[in-house]
Amino acid sequence: MVKILIVIFTLGLISNATLAGHHKITIGKGDHQHVSHTIMVKHPWSRASISKNGVVYVTLHNHGGSNDKLVGASSSVAKSVQLHTHKYENGIMRMRHIKSITIPAKGSATLKPGGHHIMLMGLTKKLKKGNSFPLTLNFEKAGKIPVNVNVRHAGALKNQSNHDHHHSSGKSHKMKH
Hints:
- By secondary structure, this protein is mainly beta.
- 11% of the residues lie in helices and 51% in strands.
- It has one helix at 2-20, and strands at 24-25, 33-34, 39-47, 54-62, 68-74, 78-89, 92-98, 101-103, 108-111, 117-123, 132-139, 143-152, 162-166, 172-176.
- A hairpin with a 2-residue loop joins strand 6 (78-89) and strand 7 (92-98).
């Protein structure tokens, strides 16, 4: 009963903060997130690094009534961060830098192996399995949203069952699927 009341109270605080405008809310350790009324960031993850570059994958949900675009990202773990995609050219799969990734209104965009992704160029430290690092996503309309990226094993092809969710309300939690 007490747990249910705490959850209801916490959800009420988040709802009130969201209605009041752009605020930062802290729930739990290290869950300080920028509030966006439209974008929800789910499952940010990376592979353990085996070279001087790294990669980040994430699912972006747009709850707004108009398209938004991921136009960039930044992180203290890399000298530069770029948006990339894979293109099949002349029988060879090639990675290409792109300017933005559209997140459709009331839709989502999944950055995943073999598709759109975030490249970490010139890592300043090794990405080790089990660790996490900060990444700030920059959206055309929603602005900057800081997230924590979990590092999986070097050969990971998808996120494992323990996912982080960074909600537009600023709330972050872990969830088992």
